[in-house]
Design brief:
eight-stranded parallel β-sheet, binds zinc ion, globular, single chain, alpha/beta
C-alpha cells in the first residue's frame, strides 16, 4: 500500500527516544511520505531540520492559533526564509481555535490573516487548524468566511493554485461546512477519530465526501485511532484510518491509500522536489 501521513508532529519530545524506529515502522507498512507541520517558530525550525535529514519527510512552517498569544508581525520575517527552504511545502498549521482560550480570538485572527498573506506571497498551500468551541460552529464558519475573502485576492495572484489552496486538517465540522470548503478548492483531512465508536457524524460525513478531496493524517502523537485510542499515536497508524475510510465507503483499503497519496502529492507537489 502506498500511504502518506500528511500531518505528524515528529519533533515533539514523545518521539525523542525512538524517532528512527517510528519512521521505520511507518515505512514498513508503506508510508512513502510524511508532512510535519510546525506550531511555532522553534518547531518550524525543528520540522525543517527533520526534512533536511530524512528524504521522505517534508515540512510546513507556521504558528498555531494556540501558540499565537505573543504574536508579532515581525515573526513573519523569521518564517519567510524558513518557508522558502527546499522541502517546505506549506504554511501551517495556522487557523482558529475557539475550543481553547490560550490566545484571544482577535490575535488568532491577525496571526491567521498575516500567515495567509505569507502563503499567497510564496505561493504555498496552507494547513489549517480549525476547532469550534463546544456546541458552536463559529471557528470553522469564521475560517471559511476569512478564506472566501482571501481567495478572491489569492486567485488573481496565483491562478495556477486553484483547487489546491490547502487542507482543513483533522476536520470536525458539519457536512455543509465541508461542502463549502471543497467548493472553494480545499481538501479535508481525516484523522483517528473517524475510527472511534462515538463518531457517527464524522463517519456519515466521510461516506458522502469525494475521495479525491480527502487526505489522511495521524496528527501524531495525538488522536491515536481505535483500538489504540489514548496511546501515543505514530504515522504507522495512518493505515488504520485508510482501512476505516475504505470500510465506510465500500472500497478497498489500497484504493483509499493510493488515492489519498495521489491527492497529497497533488496538493503539496513533492514530486517536483524529488
Ligand atoms: Zn497538528
Amino acid at each position: 500500500m502506498a500511504l502518506t501521513d500528511t500531518h505528524c508532529h515528529l519533533y515533539f519530545n514523545s518521539f525523542s527516544d525512538d524517532l528512527q524506529a517510528v519512521l521505520e515502522r511507518a515505512r514498513g507498512v508503506g508510508v512513502e511520505r510524511f508532512l510535519v507541520p510546525a506550531v511555532d517558530l522553534e518547531t518550524s525550525r525543528a520540522a525543517l531540520r527533520l526534512a533536511q535529514t530524512e528524504p521522505d519527510v517534508f515540512a510546513a512552517v507556521g504558528v498555531h492559533p494556540n501558540d499565537a498569544a505573543a504574536w508579532q508581525d515581525a515573526w513573519l520575517e523569521a518564517l519567510r526564509p524558513l518557508a522558502q527552504a527546499p522541502k517546505v511545502v506549506a504554511i501551517g498549521e495556522i487557523g482558529l481555535d475557539y475550543y481553547r482560550d490560550y490566545t484571544p480570538p482577535d490575535i488568532q485572527r491577525r496571526a491567521f490573516e498575516r500567515q495567509l498573506d505569507l502563503a499567497a506571497d510564496l505561493r504555498l498551500p496552507v494547513v489549517i487548524h480549525s476547532r469550534n468551541a463546544r456546541g458552536s460552529a463559529q471557528a470553522i464558519d469564521d475560517i471559511l468566511d476569512l478564506l472566501q475573502d482571501f481567495l478572491a485576492r489569492w486567485e488573481s495572484v496565483s491562478p495556477e493554485m486553484r483547487g489546491r489552496w490547502g487542507v482543513l486538517h483533522s476536520f470536525s465540522g458539519s457536512a455543509a461546512q465541508a461542502q463549502r470548503a471543497i467548493e472553494m478548492g480545499f481538501s479535508i483531512g481525516i484523522t483517528g477519530p473517524v475510527t472511534f465508536k462515538n463518531a457517527p457524524d464524522l463517519q456519515a460525513l466521510v461516506r458522502t465526501l469525494p475521495l479525491e478531496r480527502l487526505l489522511i493524517e495521524t496528527d501524531a502523537p495525538f488522536l491515536s485511532p481505535h483500538p489504540l485510542r489514548g496511546k501515543r499515536n505514530e504515522p504507522e497508524r495512518v493505515r488504520l484510518i485508510a482501512k476505516k475510510i475504505a470500510e465506510l465507503k465500500g472500497l478497498l483499503p489500497e484504493t483509499v491509500a493510493e488515492t489519498t497519496t495521489r491527492n497529497a502529492a497533488r496538493l503539496f507537489q513533492w514530486s517536483v522536489l524529488d
